[in-house]
Amino acid sequence: AKNSKKISDAKKDDEFMKSVASYTWGNRADDVAAVAWELTVLEMSMTDDYLNAIVSVIANPDMNNQSNVHNIPEELEELQNLISEALLEASEEVGPLIQKSWEEIIVTILIEKCCVPLSAVKGVAATYRMTNRPPPTQASPFVSTILRPLQEFDQVFANRTPPHVESSWKEGVISIVAERYSSAVEELIATVKRTEVALKNRKARRSTAGGKSDGEKVKLQLFLDYREFSTMAKTIGVDVSGVEGIVKLKDLTKEAESLQVGGGASSNGDAN
């Protein structure tokens, strides 16, 4: 029994060590952002608080004991300038690390997370192909999850984002995600059009539900999905008119706008 317990404990220790060994702080956006914020505080302190503290220790004359005064005012000023230059030079090496943390590491991690739901784009066609379903009236459920990792991360670190980073990192994430999304939609639309051509001389071309063909329903769904995605990007604080992938999505799905129930576009049909 004792031997079995030792073996069990050894296995647990081994599993724990493997999990520790496989952990890399650079793989989690939250950890990278936390480290980047500490670097931001350090950068600001080096040119302000640290400067004053060091000068007060090294070059502060003791007014109560004039025998301890070794520096004349001009020398004190020169010493302060030297210390300031040294700290400024050191702080300049911190800035690029902060910039890289946000605009490269964090952006890359969030892009991969946000792109996971895009695999569901292909399934839109299967939802309406030969199913006799009515035309869609709202976005696909997966669309609301695309930018969720970015939204949640932004909410947590909104007050811990370095001032000079601003919103460029969010634009970087949405730009790539929208590009991949538009590529998936473009591929699906091409497939739908080929299918429509193959069925154009068959009675099956039009379904009975809603008087629209399966292909039209798919296109309408893609339009509603684009509109929801664009709205989400706006909510995050990104100007969608400057995001190439979102503009492309609009162009790819605009012909389906007139297919909405009731005919024509709704009052808020254009997300851009």
Account of the 3D structure:
It is a single chain. The protein contains 11 helices and no strands. It is an all-alpha fold.
Low-confidence parts: 65-69, 204-210, 264-269
- Sheet/helix structural class: mainly alpha
What is the mean pLDDT? Answer: 80
Task: Kindly provide the radius of gyration, computed on alpha-carbon positions and rounded to a whole number of angstroms.
Answer: 29 Å
For the largest beta-sheet, the strand count, sense and barrel status come to: none
Strand content: under 5%
Report the span from N to C terminus.
Answer: 69 Å
Number of helices: 11
Q: How helical, in percent, are the residues?
A: 55-70%
Which shape, going by the Cα principal axes? elongated
| DSSP summary, beta strand count | 0
Encode the helix/strand succession as letters.
Answer: HHHHHHHHHHH
Short description:
The protein has 272 residues and is an all-alpha fold. It has 11 helices and no strands.
Describe the secondary structure blueprint for this structure.
Layout: H1 2-22, H2 29-46, H3 49-58, H4 73-91, H5 94-115, H6 123-128, H7 143-146, H8 148-157, H9 168-199, H10 214-236, H11 244-253
Helix pairs in contact: 2-4, 2-5, 3-4, 5-9, 9-10, 9-11, 10-11
Output the keywords:
272 residues; mainly alpha; 11 helices; 64% helix; elongated
